[in-house]
Amino acid sequence: MVKPEPTPPASSPPAEAAAVPLDSTTRVIPIHPDLVEIKVPDGPLPSYRYHPVTCQPIKPRDYQTELKQLEEQYKSREAALHAQEQIAKEVKEKIETAKRKREEVQKFMDKKVKERDTEMKVVSKFQETKASDIPS
């Protein structure tokens, strides 16, 4: 029995749009003053009209449901701006946490590589010594 493939939710990027690396040259304008690490293309649209992962233009009609939910959740402009600032802080913290974890993993990997190299030197010295002890 063949199961039908689930359809992606409206808020997910199209399947053919791949994530654009954060250091890509197409990324020029920060999406928020507090999130200068995340940039989108400099194009005819404002920065908030580009998807932050794929850098593809966002069509508001594709996100009508989400936009209505946000309008209901944040009745005033001030509430929306406050929520935007809070989310920007949370995203910045997550980016910093991920960066720290990456650095920790890199340090651990470097330490293990150094240990392996030392062990390989010891083994090769042992093998040389053992080989020279064999009478010819």
TrEMBL record:
Biased composition (Pro residues): 1-12
Region (Disordered): 1-21
Coiled coil: 67-108
Keywords per UniProt: Coiled coil
Domain of life: Eukaryota
Protein name: Uncharacterized protein
